[in-house]
């Protein structure tokens, strides 16, 4: 819950002052909640939920203002109740990271030194935050790369196809690199193509932003 109210500094003032009154935060895991009050971007006070007392960050306001911490506790209790109702209405299930399945293949079986489309199929992953890149002999390929974007599977997971148009030559190594938050260690998979070229797929952890 959030409310902003302008506090005028006088008739000749060219800019208003803004007080952010009663910022209530509650989440279903981690810290049980937060209640703060800000003035012009500075935290004026917050409520210590364990000690059930108001802590002033800007002492000047405490000389002419007061805040009952019980009000913050009541607001957080209401916020918690509303969150639980929304969870039930949305048929909520706890979100868990699901690792992707990665397959690399050429669209056509052709001799070397002919145009071909290499496909990196990434399927069954959650959440949808994912990065897929193509490399040729260790150098990233940006030209000729086409992606379908995220496709929903209908069961909360996603899939995507990232394709590279190229002319494979003998001795070249193509790498499809996939980064995703579900992965805790690199996963390597090899896929051979006709001749001495090979396609290499690398799956690695994607750091949270």
From TrEMBL:
It comes from the Eukaryota. It is a single-pass type I membrane protein. GO terms for cellular component: MHC class II protein complex. The keyword Disulfide bond applies. Keywords: Adaptive immunity, Disulfide bond, Glycoprotein, Immunity, Membrane, MHC II, Transmembrane, Transmembrane helix. Residues 100-180 form the Ig-like domain. It is found in: Membrane. The keyword Electron transport does not apply. GO terms for biological process: adaptive immune response; antigen processing and presentation of peptide or polysaccharide antigen via MHC class II. Belongs to the MHC class II family. This is Ig-like domain-containing protein. It comes from Ailuropoda melanoleuca.
